[in-house]
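pasting for ref
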Amino acid sequence: MGRVRNFEARVFHALRREPPQTKVHRLAFWLLVIYLLLMPERLLPGLAGQIFSGISFFTLALLIIFCVPLFFRWIFGRFLWKLRNRLILTYLLMALTPVVLFVMLALISLYVFSGQFAIFAATAEMNSQLEHFAAENRAFSMHVAHTLAQQPQAKTVALPEMVDTAPESRDAGLQVAAFYDGKPITITPQNLNAAHITQVPSWVKSGFEKGVVWDQNRFYLRAVDTQTINGHTTTLISSVLLDKSGIDQVAHGIGRIEMIPVIEEDAAHPEQQDGKSKVVESELSRRKRVREEIRENSIAGGMLPAAQHFYDIPITFYAPLETRDWASGKPHDTSIIVTSRPSLLYNRLFITSLRIASVIQNILIGVAIFFGLLELIAFIMAMRLNRTITESVNNLYDATVEIDRGNLAHRIKVTRNDQLAALGRSFNRMAHSMERLLAEQREKERLQNELSIAQEVQANLFPRGAISLPMLELHGACYPARTVSGDYYDFLVFGNSQLGLALGDISGKGISAALLMATLHSAVRAYRFAGEDLLTSRNGEENDDPFLEPAKILTQLNRHLYRSTQPEKYATLFLAHYDGTNQQLTYSCGGQLPPLVLRADDTVATLGCGGTVVGLLEHATYDQGVEQLHPGDILIAYSDGVTEPENDFGEFGEDRLLDVVRRHRHKPLDAISEQVMQALRNWIGGQEQPDDITLVLARQK
């Protein structure tokens, strides 16, 4: 199966088409492959070529069957891809389709009504002639009955209405047969005698009065009347041959009428026993003979006039006409086909008021034209609305393509004031916002890159590598709340036994705090390097090093920051000098949270000697203190980011900090620092780190 799929994919890839996805598509593809493979085999001679040709033809037929739905799906897919075509098709289905169906229903109803009216007119005309003919026959019957009542032995009866009538004006189609107590009586004049009617059929006595009968392969209008006088029954049968002239009279003003008789097929002759083929041949010949008899005995009359206008179309309708077989009395439905025109039927419908008919006709034509104009106006309005909708969607599509290409300056031209126009304006605002946001994003990325550089620069300001003295372990860590930190710590090593320690916190966060931190770092280091130079120039007099007096350094830094920064900018700073020879720590705390000394016996000393913050007051002075360190003592210097984080239970606080350090005091300092940070993370939880965190640990060996 995988090889088949790979073959399909390679073929369609070579044709630059997508591989078939549906089963119908794949089946059509393989039918095409089979058909192409069978083409050479069709050229083989003899029976093999014929077999392959048949298989090829069958394959082609299946291919066409499967390709037709694919073709229509492809056509409709491409046609309906555009919204305009979809809306047009929707309008045609929802608007024009009901109109077309209604018009078709109206036309079909009008056609059926016209056909029924034509049939009604024809049958009404025929019934009118039958009624007139039956009335004459009744008069003849009464005359004959009274004559025979007076002269019972008479063998001939003259019809008085016909005796004095000139022969050329007599109805040559009229035939009369008279019976007195079932015996035939001669009628004069002789040309009226119906010689072929020799008796009264038994079924006539059941109440037949008039109608169309089928007798001797001819249609007749026939009326029967019976009179009983003095116990004697006289029956008079009048007939008129229904031929073309009779049909012409019925069809006058209607159109053309055709009557087709019903002739039953005879059963197969039992004497034909020469095989099934002869019986079948006899059936075919007999059916042919019946059709010929029907064609010969059919009668038609009337004439269809020329059309008066373009919609005066021929209307042909069929209806059954009940006729009787004169010999057996069996009823038949004779087919009568009437062909007429709307103009003929219209004139016949309004035969008594032709002037009103023309007025009504003009009114109907005017209403039809008016409705057509309304439909045309509705169609034009629908097309205009369709154009506005599709134009807006097309503009939106073009705009999305431009935006996808990166042209964020593209805007949709909006001239209307509707919901689609509002959508276009919203798209323009969205494009403007995207353009602005991308510009801000680029600016943010630029700033982020600069902050990354600033972070790298600031990272170089902190002590790098492991710094320690033979008698003192050191560890420092700073965790910025943002990209760069406003906290500061530094280790300054003097020889093999002395160390300068600094820890500060700049007011604020972010770039401004980081810049002030760099300034403070540079100033502290500058004072240190100046002290080294001064110490060297005085031939190693160690007491002359100014860093041995942190209070003086804080005083100088305070004056420097006050004069070089804005009034609201300040820093807290802890400076200390450690002398490893006597294990003493000289310090001064300028507004910084006092560092703690956790002694080996679990007592705690607070290093709070100093003064106010640095850089806020120009003439601030600072005190300094001295603390003796013993083996196992741990100095804990920290910023407010360590003790001030809060949760529902309050601040983290110094007690929790001391508890963590106390529980892990025998571990390396970096491990203790990590435990403190883990406790802080657990205390803060999922909240953002509120402030920069700086922690410095020093342990006396």
